[in-house]
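The instructor's notes for this session suggest beginning with a concrete chain rather than abstract definitions. Hand out the sequence below and ask the class to guess, before any prediction is shown, which regions might be ordered.
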Amino acid sequence: MNETQLTASLAQAGLRYCGPDRTFGALPVKAAWLAVSCRREDGRRDLVVDKEDAQLLANANAAWFRLASESGLLGGGDRMFLLGVDFADADAGSVPDLRWIRVELMEKWDVMGAGVTSGLLGSGAFCPEFVMLSLDETVVLRGTTWDRRIGVLTVPNPDRVQMIRTYVERLAINPRTAPAERAIAENWLARPPKDS
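After discussion, reveal the predicted structure:
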């Protein structure tokens, strides 16, 4: 995916592309995807919408915005956050190249509708699959699909969630981990936990 395609897909969702994230040592994108496996004890919070809901799109977008606002994903007044994107070639069998990009929420947006349908934030209409991270890295927001429901969930302080830390530790020592990804994992693990 090139920058022009990325910018166009993001615009469909109402997100402005602000460039790649330059934070070396940010939470690996692969690890952020694990938010869907976290527990309530980890601080996980879910909002779900039944696929049969007559107001599915409106309610799904409302759920996303509510969690994004209440969790702190949108940060200050700039409404900027990180979005995990796979930059690998679309060829079957290509190895994922997951990286964070910086995006800004525009005034008019449709994350759970046009954003998902574009293929960037999901696998088709009403099948969200995406991961977002606040700029200060204190909250992960994940969109996902279940059999009869779609929804969003947040996990605060991912650096304090044992399942995520263990996964990143494995990335850091696995000889099959790409060198760049291993370096990101090592740097993330070396950083002190964020203040709550």
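Then share the key points. The chain has six helices and seven strands. The chain has a mean pLDDT of 91.
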